[in-house]
Amino acid sequence: MSRILITGSADGLGRAAGEALLSAGHDVVLHARNSGRAASLALLVDRGAHVVVADLGERDDVLGLAAQLAEGAPLDAVIHNAGVWSGRAVMPVNVVAPYLLTALLPAPRRLVYLSSGSHFGGHPSLAGVDWRGTRAGSYSDSKLFLTALAAAVARLRPAVLSNAVDPGWVPTKMGGPHAPDDLELGHRTQEWLATSDDPEAQTTGGYWYHQSRRDPHPAVHDEAFQEQLLQALAEETGIALADAG
Fold this sequence. Notes:
It is a single chain. The two termini are 21 Å apart. The chain contains eight helices and eight strands. The chain has helices at 12-23, 35-39, 42-46, 59-71, 90-104, 139-156, 183-195, 223-237, and strands spanning 3-6, 27-32, 50-53, 77-80, 110-114, 161-166, 207-209, 212-214. By secondary structure, it is of the alpha/beta class. It has an eight-stranded mixed beta sheet, with helices on both faces. Strand 5, helix 6 (139-156) and strand 6 (161-166) form a beta-alpha-beta unit. The longest helix is centred in the middle third of the chain and has 18 residues, at 139-156. It is 39% helix and 14% strand.
């Protein structure tokens, strides 16, 4: 049994992953943005899930969440599922929050970051990026940065299995009711990477789509770009990502 945190798990792919992992016997920590959304997880709490509450768009909330989790039982895996499609919260939620949680939590053995095929349309430039969300951010850019973060963690923390997953365009609240991809396949890879003893699931630095490793945007594995990203996030937050984990 593994202890697994899933951010953004009040609905959609995060909730589906939580339900599946609970059914498989794992100790699951779900996350909701506020108390109202946390209340919607009551059925999963009745099945043994734990719930933490934090608005990942608020820097102080993220820091508080990291401190709360660090004081609890160690996490074996984190699925960084939370994400927003548009608006001012794009960079704070999609990039800064997972960066801070990665930097501050006692390093779990496995980290899974939810990317997107949209990352191929991202621009590998950090010039003028608004990390605090005073204006709307680019979803494609945010997913490129997040995918590069996953690859950087894999490089800098060899003891940690760090991977990015494209769940496909699935019919969730974000994807819309007419999204063409398979909802079940949309969360299976995250669960597999977080828990499986399959040798393929115990690799690191991958970009995955439906349990198949794919080539990401060329900037993802560009170490110079990774270092620029990490430096920018360290300067923005005042918290550096430790090399060892």
